[in-house]
Design goal:
With 252 residues, the protein is mainly alpha-helical. Helices cover 63% and strands 0% of the residues. α3 crosses α8, α4 runs parallel beside α5 (105-112) and α6 runs antiparallel to α8. It starts with a helix and ends in a 7-residue tail after the last helix.
Length: 252
């Protein structure tokens, strides 16, 4: 997670944001590549193999998060035992996943940014008006198009890639990029998202991961050690268990 990656991500954000802001019809043209105008549908969303691939992509992403989840659960149950994996790694993986694929996506933008999905706009036989990526005033009421939660989850695999051994890191980042692009292309092919939805999901996710990695591993003022994480979780788990077992004071 070096500065080169940061500059590339910021550069892509500027180029994509400006290009699709000035020419928003590009989103419609890219979406039309997957649309069958004669049948008025996105054919691939009815394909069983493609649907399985979409589900499998999410299983793979969550599979990378499973060791971190297990480490935290076991630590809450047995606070006296050391973490199953590196405390910093577990914190890094879960914090970045929750922020990028959870809080920023589903609890922030998709809730308050009313951009309709491709399948819902009139250009693709829907009943809602298309709006560009920067306009939050669309008529989608909930679970909207901007930005893609599944795209963010797929690109979150940059986080485990950042923890790969140095000699494998370039390969890991390449694999995460291919995985994120392939998953995002499926979402576009199903009519679930526009290009800007998945592209910005990938950029935002990378920036979250870059910042979290810098804070936890690189910057002297904020970086952590495994011992610090383990000690903090031990204290938290013991307090939580004590609160659960202590009887509540009776009302006078």
């Amino acid at each position: 997670m070096n500065r080169t990656g940061l500059f590339i991500a910021l550069g892509l954000a500027v180029v994509i944001g400006l290009l699709f802001g000035i020419f928003p019809e590009l989103d419609l043209k890219l979406g039309a590549l997957f649309y069958d105008a004669a049948q008025k549908t996105f054919p691939l969303k009815l394909n069983a193999v493609a649907s399985f691939a979409r589900d499998a992509a999410m299983w793979i992403a969550w599979g990378f998060a499973l060791p971190a989840i297990a480490a935290f659960v076991v630590k809450m149950i047995r606070p006296d035992r050391p973490m199953l994996i590196s405390g910093r790694a577990a914190t890094f993986l879960l914090v970045t996943l929750l922020l990028s694929a959870g809080i920023l996506t589903n609890f922030t933008f998709k809730t308050y940014w009313g951009r309709p999905r491709p399948v819902a706009v009139t250009e693709f036989a829907g009943d809602k008006s298309f709006v560009p990526w920067w306009d939050p005033r669309g008529t989608c009421g909930r679970n909207c198009s901007f930005f893609s939660g599944e795209g963010a989850t797929a690109f979150w695999t940059y986080a485990p890639a950042a923890l790969a051994p140095p000699q494998w890191r370039v390969v890991a980042f390449g694999a995460a990029t291919v995985f994120g692009i392939a998953t995002s292309a499926l979402r576009m092919a199903f009519g679930g998202h526009f290009f800007t939805d998945v592209a910005i999901a990938g950029i935002v996710t990378y920036l979250v991961i870059w910042l979290a990695y810098a804070m936890i591993y690189r910057w002297p003022s904020t970086r952590l050690t495994d011992a610090q994480v383990d000690a903090a979780l031990t204290r938290f788990a013991r307090r939580w268990r004590r609160r659960e077992t202590d009887p509540r004071p009776s009302a006078s």
